Amino acid sequence: MTMISPSLLAANFACLDRELERITRGGAQWLHLDVMDGIFVPNISFGIPVIQSLRSISALTFDVHLMIQEPLRYVQAFADAGADILTFHLESSSDPEATIREIHRCGMKVGISIKPGTPVEEVFPYLNQIELLLVMSVEPGFGGQKFMPECLDKIRALREKAPKLDISVDGGINAQTGAACREAGANVLVAGSYVFGAQDTAAAIASLQ
Ligand code: DX5
Ligand code: ZN
I want to staple 192 with a disulfide (CB 3.0 to 4.6 A). Which of 14, 78, 134, 143 is the partner? Predict the structure, then answer.
């Protein structure tokens, strides 16, 4: 079964309650929350208070994608805000082992993400310690970019190494690129503009599944 994780980055921030209702009624199980600090990536999005407010109105699985420089410093705060899965970048400055331990200690599932330029082999040592691997199919920082097909080989290699791991893809996902990712072995599809930009949200989500 494929999980769909609509990325809030593409929602209308003036009415987040209605946006969440739209994707929940449309059949999404997860909500992807992109946190950017303007340092790890050249953009700033939203942070802990927004996630905390949304937690009080939503039962979706909160799939938080940290694009920040020192994720270890903020693990407890994201747990308190209501994150279910906390994904950090292998390229960020925190020690991966320590960050994995702290996320588990705080009761969340652990995800690691890699940028398009990072060889997939670099995450192999951590695969048996984490619950999710997020493969970036665009350079992190902005929604609405074009899918990079090079990520498909990474997904295949990961699926072979870790048959039971949640493998997620993020960036430029639509019905066509999503199908290619599923075929390669991904079971979680993150989609921002494709889902929130659709007139018929349920149809967009169904087309990804
Ligand atoms: C990019 C973010 C993505 C982004 C995806 O840095 O991690 O989650 O919102 O947006 P689309 O689906 O529009 O490429
Ligand atoms: Zn993301």
Answer: 143
